[in-house]
């Protein structure tokens, strides 16, 4: 059954494209009185829904612009309300005139952040997970971010969450049946069905949770740090990978103190690359703050480029206590300084990529190694969880189900189990957005821009 369309008494409007000079600017107007704006602009023609009209809009009889106008009639619009889209020329003067004029119409006001999408959500046009997908879609900067956002926005993940909820609802129905046959054979068999189903569903949820937070990493970006002793060429390497000079390079040991960050697109994945202070014992107050930042960032990132030179080949063991090949790439720089660099790898268990940033030697191997490591990290099945909100709720569900399974034989009354399952169903409703509270909605929609 279609949801009842919720038409707010206030009609909202906003610029949906970026403010500034451009070929086209789009202003959207949504609400029960959206059509009134056309009369105010001197358009008395009755517009058919979903047709495109090329008409002059006037303010006090003066033409402001010739524009394309589309009328989306409720419920077949993005918000579910009556919605007008004005495609104007992208001039600041036109945008000002039109927005100012709209604000003078009774019951009209400028939209708040994400208010169009919030109305769409309230009118059942999308669920909360899809709204998160839409936000990710707008923020996507790389191909993999886009693919993940589209899966979420188009409802693939919602479908999985709905299926989980459906299975839990079935268990709930089994519990109710059990109330009718508490003591006999049928009761026994339903009892074991419930136990099996609880196990089955919770294993699936654990699988989704056990994903190394890849969904969030694809969305927010993988973090990669370059670490090593002073002067090994860390800043030279970040400048090379960033293709521009973002960090100071000098032959004075201890040049970099702050964390220097840059966002890159590597093989379609968003990556934040971080240059760090050279790690050494120092009495310099500022430098030692930098060294601490470097040591701490090692614990935070997904991948570490460990840079050494022939003089300090194993020094990384002082600050990387837990060397994991998945998480680290060992690189030896300045091989231009070494007569026969092959011997260095031969003398050590660990394999280094030998490079010379100065001579542009083997730098493509560093990029390939980074690409391989990131694609390996991301190579689980498409992640289902993409936000902390979703993860927290699923963790609650997972924990509650695990407790039920562990205490299954101790449930003396089936109605207590039924009640526990009802709580879990409510968590799933919260996840999909069938139960909401204003704080959650405020937080999510505030991250949208004003015209969305
Ligand atoms: N010979 C040679 N010198 C290099 C190479 N790469 C960088 N250098 C030089 O090494 C010196 C230190 O380079 P940086 O990139 O500042 O080193 P860093 O690791 O960032 O140093 P800190 O910020 O002090 O920790 C500079 O003089 C660079 O020009 C290389 O491949 N070969
Ligand atoms: Mg540096």
Secondary structure: elements and pairs:
Blueprint: E1 11-15, E2 22-30, H1 36-40, E3 52-59, E4 62-72, E5 83-90, H2 92-103, E6 108-110, H3 115-122, H4 128-139, H5 143-153, H6 156-180, H7 185-209, H8 214-220, E7 222-228, H9 234-242, E8 260-266, E9 269-275, H10 285-300, E10 303-308, E11 328-332, H11 342-346, E12 353-354, H12 363-377, H13 388-406, H14 414-432, H15 438-446
Parallel strand pairs: 1-6, 7-9, 7-10, 10-11, 11-12
Antiparallel strand pairs: 1-2, 2-5, 3-4, 4-5, 8-9
Helix pairs in contact: 4-5, 6-7, 6-14, 7-13, 13-14
The protein binds guanosine-5'-triphosphate (GTP) and magnesium ion.
Structure description:
The chain is of the alpha/beta class. It folds into three domains: 11-126, Probable tRNA modification gtpase trme, domain 1 (Gyrase A, domain 2, 2-Layer Sandwich); 133-211 and 385-433, Four Helix Bundle (Hemerythrin (Met), subunit A) (Up-down Bundle), CATH 1.20.120; 220-377, 3-Layer(aba) Sandwich (Rossmann fold). Helices cover 44% and strands 17% of the residues. The chain is built from 15 helices and twelve strands. It has helices at residues 36-40, 92-103, 115-122, 128-139, 143-153, 156-180, 185-209, 214-220, 234-242, 285-300, 342-346, 363-377, 388-406, 414-432, 438-446; strands spanning 11-15, 22-30, 52-59, 62-72, 83-90, 108-110, 222-228, 260-266, 269-275, 303-308, 328-332, 353-354. It has a six-stranded mixed sheet with strand order 3-4-5-2-1-6. Strands 8-9-7-10-11-12 form a six-stranded mixed sheet, with helices on both faces. A hairpin with a 6-residue loop joins strand 1 (11-15) and strand 2 (22-30). Helix 6 packs antiparallel against helix 14, helix 7 packs antiparallel against helix 13 (388-406) and helix 13 (388-406) packs antiparallel against helix 14. The longest helix has 25 residues, at 156-180. The chain is flat, with a radius of gyration of 29 Å. It starts with 10 loop residues before the first strand and ends in a 6-residue tail after the last helix. Bound molecules: guanosine-5'-triphosphate (GTP) and magnesium ion. The site of guanosine-5'-triphosphate has 24 residues, from helix 9.
């Amino acid at each position: 059954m279609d949801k009842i369309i919720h038409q707010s008494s206030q009609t909202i409007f906003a610029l949906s494209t970026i403010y500034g000079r451009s070929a086209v600017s789009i202003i959207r107007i949504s609400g029960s009185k959206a059509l009134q704006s056309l009369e105010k602009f001197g358009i008395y023609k009755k517009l058919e829904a979903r047709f495109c009209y090329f008409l002059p809009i006037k303010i006090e009889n003066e033409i402001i612009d010739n524009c394309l106008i589309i009328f989306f009639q409720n419920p077949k619009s993005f918000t579910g309300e009556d919605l007008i889209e004005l495609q104007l020329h992208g001039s600041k003067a036109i945008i000002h005139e039109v927005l100012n004029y709209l604000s003078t119409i009774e019951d009209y006001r400028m939209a708040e952040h994400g208010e169009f999408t919030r109305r769409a959500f309230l009118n059942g046009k999308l669920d909360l997970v899809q709204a998160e997908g839409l936000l990710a879609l707008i923020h996507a900067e790389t191909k993999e971010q886009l693919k993940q956002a589209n899966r979420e926005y188009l409802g693939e993940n919602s479908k999985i969450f709905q299926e989980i909820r459906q299975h839990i609802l079935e268990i709930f129905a089994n519990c109710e049946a059990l109330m009718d046959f508490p003591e006999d054979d049928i009761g026994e068999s339903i009892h074991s069905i419930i136990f099996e189903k609880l196990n089955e569903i919770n294993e699936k949820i654990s699988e989704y949770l056990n994903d190394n937070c890849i969904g969030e990493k694809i969305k927010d970006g993988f973090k990669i740090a370059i670490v090593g002793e002073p002067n090994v060429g860390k800043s030279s390497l970040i400048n090379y990978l960033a293709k521009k000079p973002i960090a100071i390079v000098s032959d004075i040991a201890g040049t970099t103190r702050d964390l220097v960050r840059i966002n890159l697109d590597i093989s379609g994945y968003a990556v934040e690359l971080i240059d760090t202070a050279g790690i050494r014992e120092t009495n310099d107050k500022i430098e030692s703050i930098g060294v601490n930042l470097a040591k701490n960032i090692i614990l935070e990132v997904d991948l570490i480029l460990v840079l050494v030179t022939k003089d300090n080949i194993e020094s990384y063991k002082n600050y990387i206590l837990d060397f994991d090949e998945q998480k680290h790439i060992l690189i030896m720089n300045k091989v231009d300084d070494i007569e026969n660099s092959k011997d260095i790898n031969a003398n050590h268990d660990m394999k280094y990529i030998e490079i010379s940033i100065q001579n542009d030697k083997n730098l493509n191997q560093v990029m390939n190694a980074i690409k391989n490591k990131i694609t390996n990290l991301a190579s689980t099945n498409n992640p289902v969880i993409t936000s902390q909100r979703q993860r927290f709720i699923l963790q609650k569900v997972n924990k509650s189900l695990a407790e039920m399974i562990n205490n299954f034989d101790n449930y003396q009354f089936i109605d207590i189990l039924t009640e526990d399952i009802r709580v879990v169903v409510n968590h799933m409703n919260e996840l999909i957005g069938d139960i909401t509270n204003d704080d959650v909605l405020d937080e999510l929609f505030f991250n949208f821009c004003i015209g969305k």
